Every structure is written in C-alpha cells, then in structure tokens.
Amino acid sequence: MATGAKHGIEKFVLYQPRLEELSDVLQKGLKENFADVHVSVADCPDLTKDPFGFPVKGICGKPRIADVGGVPYLIPVAKLDKIYDINTVARDTDLPGAFILGAGAASSRTLGINAELMPLVHTEHEGKPAVNGSYVARISPTDGGCLLEKYSEKYHDCDFGLLGNLYVSEGKPGKVLEIRASRRIGQFSLVTAIRKSLENHYGDKPVAMGGTFIIEKGKAKAHIMPAEFSACPLNTEEEVNNWLKHFEMEAPLICQSVLVSRDPGFDLRVEHTHFFSHHGEGGHYYTDTTPDIVEYVGYFLPAEFLYRIDRPVETHKIGRD
Ligand code: ZN
User: Fold this and answer.
1) Contact in structure between 98 and 210 (CB atoms under 8 Å)
2) Of 250, 236, 254, 219, nearest to 316 (Cα)?
3) CA torsion, points 63, 296, 147, 165, in degrees to nearest 10?
4) Interval between CA 52 and ligand 1 midpoint (Å)
5) 10 Å Cβ neighbour count for 215?
6) How far is 33 from 114, CA to CA, in rounded Å?
7) How far is the CA of 151 from the centre of ligand 1 (A)?
8) Distance between CA atoms of 248 and 288, rounded to whole angstroms?
9) CA 224 / ligand 1 centre spacing (Å)
10) CA 126 – ligand 1 centroid, Å
11) What pLDDT, on the 0 to 100 scale, is given for residue 4?
C-alpha cells in the first residue's frame, strides 16, 4: 500500500441474498425498531446530484466490502505508520477503478493531525486519475467544534490511516434496496437494526451490505477523534470515550455505511458509518437522538465478497461502537 509494505489480504465469499428477499426480511425486521418502514427494490438515485454529490452515479456493479487495518492500530497506542491508499484497496479487492465509500481515519501523515475521514473515491484506472470526493472532519483548533472540509480542497492523495470500513463497487446505476424508516420505537440505530434483522434471519450465514443513507429529520449522536493522538495508552472503553469528542449534529446528514450481519472469524468491525453534511457538520454516527421525529432514507446493496486487509495480529474488542 502507500507505505510500500505488502499487507496480508484474506478473501471470503459472503452470503448474498436476492434483493427481493432482502427487502422482505428488512421490511419485517425493521418494523421492530421503527413505527414506519418501507423497504423496496428501486433504482439507485443519481448520486452525482444533491445532496450526495458523489463522483459516480450509483453503488452498483460487483459489490464487495473491505475491512482494512482496525481499531487495534488506533488504541491503546496509535501506529502512525499504518497508512493505506484507497487506489490500492481497489486493486486489492480485484476491482481497479472502483468507486469506494465508507468510514475511516484520515492519514495523519497527510493532515499532520488525527481526523475522521468520509471516503468517496472513484479510484484511478487505465491512466485516468482518481476523483476524490471525500470529506474530512476534525476538531477545530479555535473553538473545539467540528471543522468539515472537502478533502480535495487541501490534499491530493487518496490515503487514509489506521482503519477503514469500505464498500467497493463499479459505481454504476442500477437496482438497489431502498430503505425508508421513521419514528424510532426500538433501541437500535438504523444500521444496527439492519444488521440485527439480517442476523436474526440468516443466522451464521454472513450477509454484508454497504451504501448511503440520509438522516432527513432530527439529530444524531456523533463523535470526532481529537486532533492529537492520546498521550497515554487508552486501555478501556471509558478511556476511549473520554478521549473522543462527542456531538449532537443536525439533519440533513449524508451517511456512508458498511455493515456485516455476523463476523465469520476475521476480527471485523461489524458496522461503521461516517457522515458529512452541507452545513459544516460531519463525523462518526452512533444513532439518532430524536426518535419521535427521525426520518431515514437509504440505498444499499449486499456484497458478494469480504476482503480483510492487514488484519491486526494483536487485537482487542475496545472502541468498536
Ligand atoms: Zn468512525
């Protein structure tokens, strides 16, 4: 990857149900968590348009997910040499030129600090340079609030650091699962509710999905990692939460999400969602904080393959919310 080091790549064939079947499974499952649910098979909206503004039209074509690095490279002590190139991830997942979205950490080598990355990259292919539509959210050094920027306005690589949960596709238009859910009645976030619905139905057959959703109304609980890596090792969930900066952010928020119903034994982060907005807010999504009024609409596809790239040898379960 960017460091020149050759990382281990493990490939796994996921269970990939038909869209019509998934639509039924999620329609039933999400009803336990939301008062209003409508799941259907629909055309992917043109994602080059507002509010998405992606570099490609859709999330279709050879869908796969990649779990790169991991939280053990961030905590207890950050391993700053863990830098990856999204173009390399496209090649490593056997889809050079892919469109890649998801959630990760920014490269501290590029930024000089730690920050949240919202990858949205149409990767380089056949001499054509990458189009990097990513966003980056950092803690503002002046007021301690969120500072959201378009990555390409300052930086010219496609790197990220430490960890990334990525959805990889040809970026084409096509049929997707459209998920509409509003008025939350259960305890789960949208992403966790999708994941639990899949796990309840498919059991030990791992089903993974990736895509994008909008929180159209309400607010979301979020975090942004501090600009400075922790000076002392972060050894517990509580220490990690005290280090992170927590926010409540306002809709509309455009979220990129990767989830897998169950870890088939690759030390995965089973869900990870980052969002950006057009009003200066962005970060890591936990859930909405306004169950009575929240409204979600999202577009997802099940992935055919999982790629586990540069899996940490020494691992733990802290900090995976
Ligand atoms: Zn995150």
Assistant:
1) no
2) 236
3) -30
4) 19
5) 26
6) 34
7) 16
8) 9
9) 8
10) 31
11) 46
CA of 93 to the centre of ligand 1 (A): 21
Question: pLDDT per residue over 219-244, tens digit each?
Answer: 999 999 999 999 999 999 999 999 99
DSSP 8-state symbol, 260 = E
Distance 69 CA to ligand 1 centre (A): 13
pLDDT digit string, tens, across residues 120-161: 999 999 999 999 999 999 999 999 999 999 999 999 999 999
Distance between first and last Cα of the chain: 27
Q: Identify the segments of the chain with pLDDT beneath 50.
A: 1-4
Tokens of 259: 């989830």
Kindly report the number of other CB atoms within 10 A of residue 112's CB atom: 9
Structure confidence at residue 35 (pLDDT) = 98
Q: Render 290-320 in DSSP notation, one character per residue.
A: -TTT-EEEEEEEE-SEEEEES--SS---TT-
Beta strands in the chain (DSSP E): 9-13, 34-43, 64-69, 83-85, 99-105, 116-118, 120-122, 131-132, 135-139, 146-150, 159-169, 175-184, 208-217, 219-224, 245-250, 253-260, 271-276, 283-288, 295-302, 305-309
Give the pLDDT confidence score for residue 206 in this predicted structure. 98
Ligand 1 centroid to residue 91 C-alpha, Å: 23
Query: Taking the CB of residue 270, how many other CB atoms lie within 10 A of it?
Result: 19
CA–centroid distance, 163 to ligand 1, in Å, is: 9
Residue 320 pLDDT: 87
80 CA to centre of ligand 1 in angstroms = 17
Phi/psi at 181 (5° precision): -145, 135
- Provide the pLDDT for residue 233: 95
Spacing, Cα 116 to ligand 1 middle (Å): 7
Half-sphere exposure of 208 (CA within 13 A, CB side): 29
Q: How far is the CA of 20 from the centre of ligand 1 (A)?
A: 30
| CATH classification for the domain delimited by 17-309, as one of 3.90.1300.10, 3.40.50.410, 3.40.50.300, 3.30.1330.80 | 3.30.1330.80
For residue 3, the model assigns a pLDDT of 46
